[in-house]
Amino acid sequence: MDRASRIWASEAGGGALLDLAVYPFTWTLLALGSPATWTADAVVLPDVGVDVLTTLSLAYPGTAVAQRTCTPLSQAVHTGTMAGEDATLSTWAPLTNPTGGTIEVSEGVREVRADPTGPPHAFMLHEVTRCVQEGLLESPAMPLDLTLATIRMFDDVRRRIGVRCPNDARVR
Length: 172
Known about the structure:
Helices cover 27% and strands 26% of the residues. It has three helices and seven strands. The two termini are 34 Å apart.
């Protein structure tokens, strides 16, 4: 663990929640919407003030649930899986720019290949560029209300787990 890395700097938005959890959480948010209830647990480095492990447990109306765990301390597989009554969808790594995945149904497993548009996160830059060029004020793929819901929830998570950023004092 390199303590000089930006991932350990609260002023840079470091830590598991702000640096890593946003990607699997957004994947879940786009598939299921905002959760009805949620809980968060974390391990926070008190001397640095960032979380080294955060787990979000999300519950939705009906029977849908999601579990998201993030940590920069592990080289765990960076994939996403969604399972339902009739099918399971799994991405290949990395979740931020998968090259494909699998769809498993009762008839068998089918591989789906994707052609990533460059390095991880490039698809986000392509979408922003497209929206600007078309004069859109927000992306239909990630509307402003979902972005704001994510920010508000992550601010609530940070309060609950005890992670504060230097800029928190400037915001009422």
